[in-house]
Amino acid sequence: MSDVRPAVKDRRATVALAAATAAFTVCFAVWTLFSILGIGLQAELGLSETRLALLLGTPILSGALLRVPVGLAADRFGGRHVLTLTMIVAALATFACASADSFGTLLLAGLGIGVAGAGFPAGVSYVARFYPPERQ
Prior knowledge:
This protein is an all-alpha fold. It contains 6 helices and no strands. Helix 2 runs antiparallel to helix 3, helix 3 runs antiparallel to helix 4 (79-98) and helix 4 packs antiparallel against helix 5 (103-117).
């Protein structure tokens, strides 16, 4: 019976690592959304270079500023829950971005998309509990 427990824990750890890696991939793809769409958005909305730079920097700045609070929340409430919440917020912000028709709406969506960039500490917190420190 003792041989089964490590195998189950290893399988759960592998599933957690794979799920977190997939979540990170999706979050960072969303986080870079404006950099991919920037030129098209600039032409469609008639944005100046300054406004485009502000739009491109908004998710990066909000993601960077939110990393510490998201990490603290992950330590307190659990990484899985906080990572799930960050992905939901990022999905809603991405939807808002897709339906945005003004620069202001895009900026607000960019703030929400920045949450996707802040999901990394939550995922690390979630996966870390499955591995001993020497394997982290």
